[in-house]
């Protein structure tokens, strides 16, 4: 499976082991506290069961989608089929990546991309048929139009260059390919809008306005845009133009 991944790369691997590593000793500088915590040895141990669901519930609010509903949104809007190649950007411990691997099967390829060694080690240990890549999430080193789908949940707002990441997703997708995103969505009324901004800055997370991501995708040639808002989050999906 790693050999299939290597064939898609545009960068020379530094190491091919349990996951393919193109970063080596180079670490992406963290954009704030949230990213620094992701690289510890402790957070990956509790990420899927406690960390992500708890923080997600705080961000989404009591009436927002559950983790199961997040997975359902991703699967429905990516419309994966057997044999597809899908990239899960900032995959963490691989919860979504494993879901995708089950759908695309051995004929396809589910790639989890993250820069954290500790997250990737945990993802590999969980098994599930996916392959993993340690690489730059903003500029994934994969061939143009090589992917059928891209997923990026709970990460875009932590990237130093989120709009460059959207450029990359558009470049990597085949015509008709789909993207699904979960990111921040600042509330529209004051004083909560100011509170959202201050809290985001304190944790190193960018607070996007509602509608900003949909608008940015349309500007990059995406159509059939779906938007869903909950608390300070937005779920967005779209299809790349043919």
UniProtKB/TrEMBL annotation:
<dbReference type="InterPro" id="IPR029063">
    <property type="entry name" value="SAM-dependent_MTases_sf"/>
</dbReference>
<keyword id="KW-0489">Methyltransferase</keyword>
<dbReference type="Pfam" id="PF08241">
    <property type="entry name" value="Methyltransf_11"/>
</dbReference>
<keyword id="KW-0808">Transferase</keyword>
<dbReference type="GO" id="GO:0032259">
    <property type="term" value="P:methylation"/>
</dbReference>
<dbReference type="InterPro" id="IPR050508">
    <property type="entry name" value="Methyltransf_Superfamily"/>
</dbReference>
<dbReference type="InterPro" id="IPR013216">
    <property type="entry name" value="Methyltransf_11"/>
</dbReference>
<protein>
    <submittedName>
        <fullName>Methyltransferase domain-containing protein</fullName>
    </submittedName>
</protein>
<dbReference type="GO" id="GO:0008168">
    <property type="term" value="F:methyltransferase activity"/>
</dbReference>
<feature type="domain" description="Methyltransferase type 11">
    <location>
        <begin position="87"/>
        <end position="180"/>
    </location>
</feature>
